[in-house]
């Protein structure tokens, strides 16, 4: 899953796009590099990100989705939103997947909307909001609490007839650096929920803060952790750098088949 941000606030500047002349060639290159799914985001979810009104989020997506669908009709498109009306609008425009950082916690109509839209849903773990999550890292048993969170929400979705759900542990969302690494080391704990796992750690602060660097310098660390994520059961890698991620997958698969 490749990442493209239709905003000017995302933590990694190279993932932002400003207009058609920029995003069409970028997407074409990502497809050439082996991207399977494109994830569009119009609301930055980095810690402390600015609040974006719903109308502005919709305005940012409006022209982009239609242009992407016109230029790349066979591309699987995902939209990163926690708002049910944006989810509905996006699917009406041709989007195939909804990626919700809040797991339905920031819009109580989201689960019902997903059931009506009948599209795959990425259910992420987060506490609070992008503006408050940095202060919400007080877990007694992080594995147990996240497992219970997923179990509860999966049951709620199942009651509405939603079965096509992907789990995202939410690295960097209401987790400190040590908790992120502990969670990654135990990611396979969540395989018993019998859902695909998406891992999104690309260029995040858990890498560049540990290495005393920057998001722009975090590609090597990203590749190392993507390999670890695959070892720990990841089915989808959400990345900024598609070619490098595909190389990690190829090496991992070779090592796995040679065992």
Description:
This protein is of the alpha/beta class. It has one domain (2-257): TIM Barrel, CATH 3.20.20. The chain is built from nine helices and eight strands. The protein has helices at residues 20-32, 54-71, 84-92, 110-117, 142-159, 177-185, 205-208, 219-231, 242-257; strands at residues 2-5, 37-41, 76-80, 97-100, 121-124, 165-168, 197-199, 236-237. The protein has an eight-stranded parallel sheet. It is globular and about 40 Å long.
Short description:
This protein has 9 helices and 8 strands. The chain has helices at 20-32, 54-71, 84-92, 110-117, 142-159, 177-185, 205-208, 219-231, 242-257; strands at residues 2-5, 37-41, 76-80, 97-100, 121-124, 165-168, 197-199, 236-237. The chain has an 8-stranded parallel beta sheet.
List strands and helices in order, with pairings.
Blueprint: E1 2-5, H1 20-32, E2 37-41, H2 54-71, E3 76-80, H3 84-92, E4 97-100, H4 110-117, E5 121-124, H5 142-159, E6 165-168, H6 177-185, E7 197-199, H7 205-208, H8 219-231, E8 236-237, H9 242-257
Parallel strand pairs: 1-2, 2-3, 3-4, 4-5, 5-6, 6-7, 7-8
Helix pairs in contact: 3-4, 8-9
Task: List key phrases describing it.
259 residues; alpha/beta; TIM Barrel; 9 helices
